[in-house]
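dude i think i finally got it to work??
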Amino acid sequence: MRLKILNQALEYAKDIGFTDQALVKATMDQGLSPAAVGMFGRGATDLVDFAMEKWYEQLKVELDELDLERIGLKGRLKTGIKTRLQYQIPYQRHWAAAMALGLHPYNFPQVLYRHHKISDHIWYVAGDDSLDYNWYTKRAALSTVYAT
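look at this
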């Protein structure tokens, strides 16, 4: 039931943003009372977290299906970045507000983790094998793309 509500709320988020209202509407679509939104302890932040994890899983599948070996490092990075950003396009006008939810001290570690996870996978698929401080720098730089 929780996944059904989150998937439906993600559809509402295209129009009304990553809000508690999107969760309420999705909960009511499932025939539940609006009070059932209480199952999402972090409210709209749970919706943002769900979206980021869903997009990460989609990214992994799509990039694994592509023949990235034939293109260079820049091409692989560009493909990874573009693929991930395409998921965000329908939500773009609400994305800044969604990322603002992550600035709350309680939410920040999880949002930071999601950005790192996405960036790490893109660099991994691109063929990055750095073992020094560049490993961190590359991922931090790429993470800023998704936070804005």
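The mean pLDDT is 90.
im so relieved honestly
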